[in-house]
# Entry
Amino acid sequence: MHLDTITKLLDIPNYRAVEVTGREYEEIFVVTLEREKDIPPVCSGCGMVHGRSVHSRGTMLIEDMRMSGKRVFLLVPKRKVQCSEDGTIRVEELPWLCGRFTARFAEQVYRLTSITTNQEAGWFLGLDDETVYRIDKRKLEELALEKLDPVPAPKHMSVDEVAWQKWHKYVTNVVDVAQRKVIWNHQGRGKVNLDKFFRSLGKANCAKIKAVASDGARGYLSSIKLLNNMRKMLSSCWTIFTSRST
# Structure
């Protein structure tokens, strides 16, 4: 099969197939990918773009959907970056991945476990029970968050991170200042997490927010500024309070 055809079938933004290894009688083949454009990496910790802090480069072997009955593995170039917020070395964030699998492969695992047992799903896909369990659990957690009742939009809110375990395990908390209570939280921190909160509100509810209090974390500030720009497009004014302005 021509490499351009494989690239189109994989349909992964900014990546193309440059080599395929494997033989006709083997049950698997490996597709080597490379980036079409060397765009700046996004830190998986804070969600910020770190254009000049690439620490190292390597590759990861990722399993994708089967093709012509054979298991497909992608050899993906991946970069590590030094987070400008806490100095930690982190792997770049790629939204189309789910651990060591593509997001669409994880979706297939979830669909299979919905109609059969983890053991049988693993047998069909060539995975062990523990791997199937971890993928299924992650998908169920994502779906549970999507099905929660919409969070009422606060007029005045604050956002901050809280460490709940060792080894840089954080939770992002959003507080309704008027109610003096946490109205939303999510594991992780930085721009990626706060963006999830704003997306869960929707544009109409985001327009109701009058002020946001935050510390000087650049990930949160970047997310708030993005929301501010959206509000300006809607001809609505608001105020952003940060510790830097006090």
Notes: Residues 156-245 form a domain with the Nucleotidyltransferase; domain 5 fold (CATH 3.30.420.10).
